[in-house]
């Protein structure tokens, strides 16, 4: 069977552009099709990029991203520091990482089409085409890559019985605050297990700051989350942190309602049984969404996109898809499972909270750089050939 020469990439978020750039590096031409009519500039909140993710992004030309976030200081609801966990992360606005990748893709001649919402595919003996919701059809390519996120259409086309995202029991919120009114925290992010919700914040030398909150809540769809005004969410968050001695209330007060980022229900996909079928394959959140608690969503998406391109460089697509899944599945599912355990601590009830607070110092003793090396020290050797 011949080498793969052309690819359709569905989704122009993070995994999509990384896949297109890595495919170009592998000598495969890729075009990106994104459902949104415009770019995602200014949309989304903060995310972290782990050293493993930085290394993967470096392979497609992203040299610098974000600001250092080298430690997490864990506090209890009284503001007492329980422990400090060293971890060499970068803090980035999702919109900045997105824009960097988008510009790189355009610079390298990747065609990015907006307003192309995938609805179906047409697969034949010679190739595959994307059918969009407006009825238009793409040119034929050798393969189609689903980088279309948590609610992936490609995942459903590969397997109509594919699992739906799993709710963690937490709603996510956050904001950038221009006048944080707090001393800079250096390269540290402070995180606290409050009585009723989880809070994180970091302040920078220029007086700006960022905070995020995870609020235990019965499941709400995105539509329901949006039906509640930002003013009301800020009020409810204020209630949740009212009894905690952390700077949550002050930072909430300093957040103009229009600047509140509602990340909605925090969800993951612990196990997607089929990552590929025929000429279709998944990459990023569509295959292995982890809840934001891992700090690894964008990093794993970048790693997978690069590994997929590397496999397609060396093998015909059926074997490449198998080799790619073999290289990735155990690793990503381990990260997802670890984040899910963290979430259950954040959503703990009164009894669970007592256990959690007692066990936190112990947990911290295990979260050493050596024990986390399997996550952070992972590096992809682009030059190494892949065998079937
Ligand atoms: C607008 C936005 C804001 C985000 N903000 C944050 C944040 O603040 N913090 C955080 O940790 N994570 C955020 N995420 C999620 C984060 O980007 C991902 O978890 C991670 O980077 C993996 O990226 P991905 O490319 O696999 O998925 P995503 O980044 O979700 O990208 C998927 C892309 O596919 C597009 N798409 C979906 N369905 C179709 C379709 N049928 N046809 C064509 N295109 C389709 C989507 O519009 C999106 O652009 C955000 C995602 C989006 C889309």
From TrEMBL:
It holds the Pfam family FAD_binding_3. This is NAD(P)/FAD-dependent oxidoreductase. Gene3D superfamilies: FAD/NAD(P)-binding domain. The keyword Transport does not apply. The keyword Nucleus does not apply. Keywords: Monooxygenase, Oxidoreductase. Residues 7-338 form the FAD-binding domain.
């Amino acid at each position: 069977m011949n080498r793969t020469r052309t690819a359709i990439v569905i989704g122009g978020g993070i995994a999509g552009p990384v896949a297109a750039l890595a495919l170009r590096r592998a000598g495969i031409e890729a075009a990106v099709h994104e459902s949104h009519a415009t770019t995602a500039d200014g949309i989304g909140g903060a995310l972290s990029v782990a050293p493993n993710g930085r290394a993967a992004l470096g392979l497609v030309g992203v040299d610098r991203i974000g600001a250092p976030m080298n430690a997490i200081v864990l506090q209890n609801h009284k503001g007492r520091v329980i422990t400090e966990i060293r971890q060499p992360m970068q803090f980035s606005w999702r919109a900045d990482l997105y824009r960097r990748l988008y510009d790189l893709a355009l610079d390298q001649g990747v065609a990015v089409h907006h307003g192309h919402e995938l609805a179906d595919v047409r697969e034949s003996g010679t190739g595959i085409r994307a059918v969009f919701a407006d009825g238009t059809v793409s040119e034929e390519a050798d393969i189609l890559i689903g980088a279309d996120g948590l609610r992936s259409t490609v995942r459903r086309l590969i397997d109509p019985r594919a699992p739906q995202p799993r709710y963690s029991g937490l709603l996510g919120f956050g904001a950038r605050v221009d006048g944080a009114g707090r001393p800079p925290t250096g390269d540290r992010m402070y995180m606290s297990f409050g009585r009723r919700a989880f809070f994180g914040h970091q302040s920078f030398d220029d007086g700006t700051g960022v905070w995020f909150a995870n609020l235990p809540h019965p499941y709400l769809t995105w539509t329901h989350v949006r039906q509640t005004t930002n003013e009301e969410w800020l009020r409810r968050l204020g209630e949740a942190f009212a009894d905690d001695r952390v700077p949550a209330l002050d930072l909430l007060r300093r957040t103009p309602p229009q600047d509140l980022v509602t990340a909605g229900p925090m969800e993951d996909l612990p196990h997607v049984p089929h990552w590929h079928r025929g000429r279709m394959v998944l990459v990023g959140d569509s295959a292995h969404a982890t809840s934001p608690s891992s700090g690894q969503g964008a990093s794993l998406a970048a790693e997978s996109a690069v590994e997929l391109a590397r496999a397609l460089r060396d093998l015909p697509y059926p074997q490449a898809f198998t080799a790619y899944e073999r290289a990735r599945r155990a690793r990503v599912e381990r990260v997802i499972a670890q984040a899910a355990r963290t979430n259950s601590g954040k959503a703990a009830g009164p009894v669970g909270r007592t256990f959690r607070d007692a066990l936190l110092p112990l947990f911290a003793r295990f979260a050493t750089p050596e024990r986390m090396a399997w996550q952070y020290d992972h590096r992809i050797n682009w030059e190494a050939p892949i065998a079937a």
